[in-house]
Amino acid sequence: MRDTSWNWSTKLVERFIRQPARLSHLMERLPDSMDSGTRRRCQFLLFGVIRHLRYLNSLIDGCLPKRPRSGVHSSLLVAGFELLSDPEKTAQIVDHAVGAVGIRFSAGEKAMVNAVLRKIGRQLEDEDPKSEASVAELAEKRSHPDWLVSCWKESFGWQATKKFTSWNQQEPELYFLPLSNEAASSGQDCPWNPYRKIDRSDWSQVMRLLEEGAAYIQDPGTRIGPEVLQGVFSEGRILDLCAAPGGKTILFNTLFGEGLDEIVSVDLPGPRFNRLESNLKRMGISRVRPMASDLFEIDSGKRGQFEGVYLDVPCSNTGVLQKKPDVKWRLGPDERPQLIALQERILAQASQFVVSNGWLVYSTCSVETDENEAVVDRFLGSAMGSGFELVEQIKSYPWETGHDGAGVALMRRM
Q1: What is the pLDDT of residue 2?
Q2: Cα distances (angstroms) measured from residue 121 to each of 124, 275, 351
Q3: Do the bridges between strand 175-178 and strand 354-364 make them parallel or antiparallel, or are there none, so unpaired?
Q4: Would you list the DSSP string of 138-189?
Q5: Under a CB-based contact definition with an 8 Å cutoff, are residues 266 and 297 in contact?
Q6: What digits encode the pLDDT tens for the residues 294-346?
Q7: By CB neighbour count within 10 A (0-12 exposed, 13-18 middle, 19+ buried), where does 156 fall?
Q8: What is the pLDDT of residues 149-161, one digit of tens each?
Q9: Which residues form the catalytic set?
Q10: Residue ranges covered by each domain of the chain
Q11: What is the CATH number of domain 221-413?
Q12: Please, are residues 202 and 184 in contact by the beta-carbon 8 Å criterion?
């Protein structure tokens, strides 16, 4: 069977259905020999299916008494997403999918796929917009877990929840941080200087800039925490914790001037840390010292203290679901207490590296109160946090800003 983007995406969707995993990890299964255009199309199909997974399953289940075997099911999901994203090409999409299924599976399954996809195409064509008056209706149509939509309704209100779920279902725009004059004049203007929006019609230029270390793919929402730190501190050293794969380290190096002596970037040993080192080497950044270590094993007496400590903790990623749709299906309410407990432990540990009158930034890419304000409040009320004061707290909501969501708290050791 020919290794096309369609065939590969059905294989990766099948793997995800069997065992939900990070989509970035699944993409690593693609062969190195695959050309960039085929790889991008495969990513578009894979991410699109997982982004709309629940709704696509409801369409398929409405046509069949039971789900078919996994390979046929994943083929229906990929073709169903194509119908959803490009309804004007329904005939071509159905014919292609039926032909591909006919090569791998039985004549009966081929006929079934033909019938199901044509029925779904008619449904999508005739479908009236739903009122989505309940949590269950909104969660199904916008492909989110009921429990998550229910939490957002309680936290943000119904209208904001509808806007949030709608935002998550859109294909994300891509931006890059320019690191050269050529990169700064490439791409398209956007509201968030110095970022540039990627023109998808000119991937070859963007890829060249990335390979040369002249640009770094980064969402403008990333800038919020580093800019807060830049606003209060300009000289000394920065400790960047949970730093891999290096995006915020690179941004620090861009934002801060000559008064910054050193950036120490820490993360656990492994593939992500290797990417951090590779990124820094490619970009020729010399004042960064990468350190592969567990935060809880670093001796503050040996490493000293820092004028600025930036902590981007592991979180639920609810502010970046548009880019990481797999999180919706991997995140469960039962895991949240353990995650929040880890955030509290890391924050307390990070605080010991801040000098007197120094600055501590706690950052997440979550929009949840229990991972942001509640964690910071408990820290400030603890023995470790009693010497700190809260200076500023920011919550960025993607449905309002138009970029990734984030939570940021700026604290100072008194």
Answers
A1: 54
A2: 5, 43, 56
A3: unpaired
A4: HHHHTT--HHHHHHHHHHH-HHHHHHHHHHHTSPPP-EEEE-SHHHHTSSB-
A5: no
A6: 999 998 777 889 999 999 999 999 999 999 999 999 988 999 999 999 999 99
A7: middle
A8: 999 999 999 999 9
A9: 365
A10: 5-126, 142-168, 175-217, 221-413
A11: 3.40.50.150
A12: no
Please, what is the Cα angle at 381 between 376 and 385, to 5 degrees?
A: 70
Burial (CB < 10 A; 0-12, 13-18, 19+), residue 142, is: buried
127: left (phi over 0), alpha (psi -120 to 50) or beta: beta
Q: Give pLDDT, residue 1.
A: 43
Other CB atoms within 10 A of residue 188 CB = 11
pLDDT, residue 299, reads: 83
Tokens matching residue 90: 């329904």
Could you tell me which of 168, 165, 167, 186 has the C-alpha nearest to residue 177? 186
Nearest to 234 by CA among 246, 212, 217, 252: 252
CATH code linked to domain 5-126: 1.10.940.10
